[in-house]
Description:
By secondary structure, the chain is of the alpha+beta class.
Amino acid sequence: xxxxxxxxxxxxxxxxxxxxxxxxxxxxxxxxxxxxxxxxxxxxxxxxxxxxxxxxxxxxxxxxxxxxxxxxxxxxxxxxxxxxxxxxxxxxxxxxxxxxxxxxxxxxxxxxxxxxxxxxxxxxxxxxxxxxxxxxxxxxxxxxxxxxxxxxxxxxxxxxxxxxxxxxxxxxxxxxxxxxxxxxxxxxxxxxxxxxxxxxxxxxxxxxxxxxxxxxxxxxxxxxxxxxxxxxxxxxxxxxxxxxxxxxxxxxxxxxxxxxxxxxxxxxxxxxxxxxxxxxxxxxxxxxxxxxxxxxxxxxxxxxxxxxxxxxxxxxxxxxxxxxxxxxxxxx
Length: 332
């Protein structure tokens, strides 16, 4: 729920992080939009179909002081916004996309790197499965438009719950990362939560040590580095483990601070709460299958550091990332 900040604000003599005090909210079922603002003084909000086409001649909303304000925009399209306040200006969009048939659907835009740059809005999206997306959901995604879809699930998974694909998708890649099936092993353990946690930590270690899984992530990064394939959406079944690790590695490459990476990783617990609540109620041990904890991600990152010396070495030497080029393409 953090939005992006313009250069004007970054260079302010007395900077205030507008992004932590203002956000765009889109309602899941109606896709109605609201601005939540927690800054005193007068403000104006402008909109466009992309960041580049925001019309700054005529505001779509304006007001004064704190509150939540409805925005009268088309529900079938994604919009991007420029907020001007007495404290500075910022580019905003919703981080959590309003998917009626999805849960963990997020834009990575707006996350801040160590040098104060931001990930561009509308380029990189992470999510859980797309099987239950509605017609309105697909229209919304087509308006972005999503160009490339990367599915980390294996054949058994995607045949059982096939993706519903937005009309504008040109590239659809299956990069099978099979350790998701280890959850069946973990699910069979009922002696203690520690058994399940240890099984999940083992899963994460496999993701960064087995060549067939590393090759899948390496291929994923070739698509991320190709601007012709953006905007790109990547997912697995829940969007928290295979996708969660892919996201963490991508954010490390973009020099996002570790605390922000961890916060983004753990946010899956909030977004997936409704999806997996019945399964967790059936068996308390399922909590550690259908949520994430820091130890899962750390087990993978520690394994990488032990093998390669640092995450950056791993990204350059094993994922073959051109990190400077990636930053130039995806940060502003």
